[in-house]
Design goal:
28% helix, Rossmann fold, Lipocalin
């Protein structure tokens, strides 16, 4: 038990060290702004808590963070200008804002705490045009991200309908931005809708963001999908976060340690070395014909063959008690395309080997992705998976190859993240969504 704990601690330290090196290899900058104590509008209860917690998380994730709270317009502008300067040549630049904002005449305006908006003519002098933030970070970093926890109920909207109004409509929320290449914009709610400030310590959106932003190995768009799910549930469908993306490639807030062939082979062998089923060992030899444990696998197969029959003629294969089936859903990434992925793991009855059905198909952002299904088998437990394809059920037209899934879980098998064996499809992430009680036919 002590040696197992020691190895677990060592593995954790190695993962932390590798993740730290991943952060160190990238240059990341961020500006976090929270506006709460408005002088001419009701205070917002949670925005400073939101900004402080997000700044702390981003710092842990390797960002050089500047935090600005309750800014006037000049202080706001100066911090945005510094962000643009700091972002030059970096790998990632992020802007987070929690406070009042509004849309007017096609422009989005962030509202500093001293703003005294009597008519829409005051906006240019009292508020900050969101386009100014876009201009500062656009093209400066390889990847840019804007997170807008705004659209709380707008206290200024009623004022803009008075006698001095120019008759231009004031939007209920904010309008979608035109995103530049390499940019991801995340909104706390859909365009034109109002987001909740929340009854607890954080707004529903930022509370969900804090839960998921440091998940190891999850790509940023999948992370936002998890945030959207949580917010929709927390607000009973009244608030649904939304994003606008012009990203090229992938970005990970908390990169998972890369899996080497040696890591995968060791994990595979550790999962089957004590097996009583020759199929497990044969699967290992098919994958690692000249592997480090190949001779041990062959010796173990020979040993089991001598033990195959009991004196009464019944098989000697041992059962591991049977593990339930499960259904996982998530995404995998092929160059610039994103595909939906479903993994149906069949219940384990007698054999130690696990079997599953992999289904893939298009996502809204990648409608040209084909659909297909194939069977896999291998090892899968609460810590790791190594599933190798063996039969197509539905193969797409063209030169489309199946892929081995190898990954790890750090939450007891609730989620898995890992690499795909070959080709341009390099990364997948899945989350357990339910049970699969159907026995495998193959």
């Amino acid at each position: 038990m002590k040696s197992t704990i020691a190895l677990g601690c060592l593995a954790l330290l190695l993962c932390q060290a590798i993740s730290s090196l991943a952060f160190a290899a990238e240059t990341r900058v961020a500006l976090v702004v929270g506006a709460s104590t408005y002088q001419h509008a009701p205070h917002l209860a949670n925005t400073l808590n939101d900004a402080g917690a997000v700044a702390e998380k981003l710092t842990e994730l390797g960002f050089d963070v500047e935090t600005v709270t309750d800014p006037d317009r000049q202080k706001f502008e100066e911090s945005v200008r510094r962000l643009g300067q700091r972002a030059r040549g970096t790998d990632a630049a992020l802007f987070y804002y929690s406070g009042h904002a509004l849309e007017h005449d096609g422009h989005n305006w962030l509202i500093p705490v001293q703003a005294n908006l009597q008519t829409e003519r005051d906006l240019r002098f009292e508020a900050l045009d969101l386009d100014a933030v876009v201009e500062q970070i656009e093209g400066q970093a390889k990847f840019s991200m804007m997170v807008l926890d705004t659209c709380r109920d707008n206290p200024f909207q009623r004022r803009f309908s008075g006698p001095d109004s120019r008759g231009v409509a004031v939007g209920r929320g904010i309008a979608p931005l035109q995103t530049a290449t390499g940019t991801l914009v995340v909104y706390a709610t859909a365009p034109g809708e109002v987001a909740a400030d929340g009854m607890g310590q954080h707004s529903p959106f930022t509370a969900a963001l804090l839960r998921h932003i440091d998940t190891p190995g999850i790509e940023v768009r999948q992370m936002i999908a998890e945030v959207r799910h949580d917010v929709r549930q927390a607000t009973y469908g009244q608030q649904i976060p939304w994003e606008s993306s012009a990203m090229e490639g992938l970005f990970f807030m908390n990169p998972a340690p890369a899996l080497t062939d040696g890591d995968a082979e060791q994990a595979f062998w550790d999962s089957i070395k004590d097996t009583a089923d020759p199929l497990d060992l044969t699967l290992y030899l098919n994958r690692y014909k000249n592997g480090r444990f190949a001779s041990s696998a062959r010796n173990r197969i020979m040993e089991l063959s001598h033990q195959e029959q009991r004196p009464d003629g019944t098989p000697r294969h041992e059962s591991r008690g049977g593990l339930p089936g499960a259904i996982y859903q998530g995404l995998f990434y092929c160059e610039r395309q994103v595909a939906h992925l479903t993994l149906k793991v069949y219940p384990q009855i007698r054999e130690s080997i696990r079997r599953a059905l992999v289904s893939f198909g298009p996502e809204p952002t990648s409608p040209i992705m084909p659909r297909g299904e194939f069977y896999v088998r291998g090892s899968l437990d609460e810590h790791s998976m190594m599933l190798t394809p063996f039969e197509w059920l539905s193969r797409p037209n063209g030169d489309f190859e199946w892929l081995t899934l190898r990954g790890y879980s750090d939450d007891g098998g609730k989620t898995f993240a890992g690499r795909l064996e070959k080709g341009s499809c390099s990364f997948f992430t899945v989350k357990r969504i339910g049970e699969n009680s159907v026995d495998a036919e193959r």
